[in-house]
């Protein structure tokens, strides 16, 4: 038998503890009621919390679903272990947006801002894939009708929306750059990856604009490891792809993947 208080006490951050509490309650409900429940969309760090907690429950199975291959944001499907997996595959929809380009470019940030501005909570939205003149939005099906009926503009651009098939392939828009840094401190990697001065990087970190592996970080000296993902508000994400070693001048050679 698990100790709920002990499980929750592992999470000091309020939002993490709230998520953990919801997951534990959902798992216990599924175990007792022979049923299935869904979380909202979780980022990769939150998925790690869910995985860590649910591994401790007997008679409970779980999986993650993002609606498209290689999804980043996924909801967690929690079920009694004797339930068939396919009972829980209908919680997600994909909405396709299209517009007349005419030189107008829309970004992930444009879509997210318009959706949240319409009253939709971030946790109801999964991945957003934006191409030249079309975009795909993964969402929980309980907000699909609202989106189809009410989202006719993204920013100042008129858009059309319709339900889309699930066989969507993500176009890789990333590029990799090689660089040298003085250390693997967060401020150093942010400076190199985003092409800003070290002082600007420190300022951004201390003002809460930087996340490391989807977690708010305000410590410039935090060490970054291979595979870590960094985001700078309004500037997208980078990944410390590889650390090669030191140069003759004792700087560190790294490869940074820029997610466009």
Written account of the structure:
- The chain folds into 3 domains: 4-87, Ribosomal Protein S8, Chain: A, domain 1; 92-163, Alpha-Beta Plaits (2-Layer Sandwich), CATH 3.30.70; 175-259, Roll (Structural Genomics Hypothetical 15.5 Kd Protein In mrcA-pckA Intergenic Region, Chain A).
- α2 (14-33) packs across α3 and α6 packs across α7.
- By secondary structure, the chain is an alpha+beta fold.
- It is globular, with a radius of gyration of 21 Å.
- The strands form 4 sheets. Strands 10-15-14-13-11-12 form a 6-stranded antiparallel sheet. Strands 5-6-4-9 form a 4-stranded antiparallel sheet, with helices on one face.
- The model has no long low-confidence stretch (mean pLDDT 92).
- The chain is built from 7 helices and 15 strands.
- The chain starts with a helix and ends with a strand.
- The chain has helices spanning 4-8, 14-33, 44-54, 108-117, 144-150, 186-194, 198-206; strands at residues 36-42, 60-65, 74-80, 92-98, 125-130, 134-140, 153-154, 157-158, 160-163, 175-181, 210-212, 215-216, 229-232, 236-246, 252-259.
- Helices cover 27% and strands 32% of the residues.
- β13 (229-232) and β14 form a beta hairpin.
């Amino acid at each position: 038998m698990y100790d709920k208080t002990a499980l929750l006490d592992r999470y000091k951050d309020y939002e993490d503890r709230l998520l953990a509490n919801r997951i534990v309650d959902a798992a216990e409900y599924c175990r007792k009621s022979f049923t299935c429940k869904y979380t909202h969309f979780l980022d990769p760090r939150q998925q790690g919390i869910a995985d860590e907690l649910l591994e401790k429950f007997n008679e409970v199975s779980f999986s993650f679903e993002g609606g498209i291959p290689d999804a980043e944001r996924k909801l967690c499907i929690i079920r009694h272990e004797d339930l068939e997996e396919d009972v829980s595959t209908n919680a997600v929809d994909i909405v396709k947006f299209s517009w007349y380009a005419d030189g107008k470019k829309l970004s992930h940030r444009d879509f997210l801002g318009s959706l949240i501005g319409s009253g939709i909570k971030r946790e109801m939205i999964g991945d957003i894939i934006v191409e030249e003149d079309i975009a795909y939005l993964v969402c929980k099906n309980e907000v699909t009708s609202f989106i189809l009926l009410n989202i006719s503009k993204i920013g100042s651009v008129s858009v059309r929306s319709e339900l889309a098939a699930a066989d969507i392939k993500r176009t890789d828009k990333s590029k990799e750059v090689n660089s040298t840094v003085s250390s693997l401190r967060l401020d150093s990697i942010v400076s190199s990856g985003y092409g800003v001065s070290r002082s600007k990087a420190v300022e951004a970190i201390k003002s809460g604009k930087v996340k490391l592996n989807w977690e708010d970080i305000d410590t410039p000296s935090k060490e970054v490891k291979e595979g870590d993902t960094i985001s700078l508000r309004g500037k997208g994400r980078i990944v410390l792809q590889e650390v090669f070693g030191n140069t003759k001048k004792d700087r560190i050679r790294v490869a940074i993947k820029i997610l466009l």
